[in-house]
Design brief:
With about 90 residues, the protein is α+β, with helices and mostly antiparallel strands. The protein has two domains: about 1-50, Roll (SH3 type barrels), CATH 2.30.30; about 55-88, no CATH class. It has one helix at about 65-75, and strands at about 1-5, 10-20, 20-25, 35-40, 40-45. A five-stranded antiparallel beta sheet has the order 4-3-2-1-5, with no helix packed on it. It is elongated and about 45 Å long.
Length: about 90
Amino acid sequence: MLLVLEDGRSLNGNIVSEDETSLTIVTGPSQVKEQKVLKSTVEFQRFSQISIMPTDLLNTLDKEQILDLLAYVLSDGNAKAAAFHHHH
């Protein structure tokens, strides 16, 4: 998600929580940072055309790491999910 704030800042990341007045976005991946933003300060938001996944990441991983990455994505990061336990 891309957020453009009224102060001119842009935030690119995943919205992890939201309530009536604010939302929390996690940016990254090199420096993962969780930021709470007041909805009233958001000029506009849209789905980002740019992934926060590093370019060519899969080319640097071995088979086990790729399977772990897929399990992470499929389980929304929940390490207790069944997806983490199928390939070990």
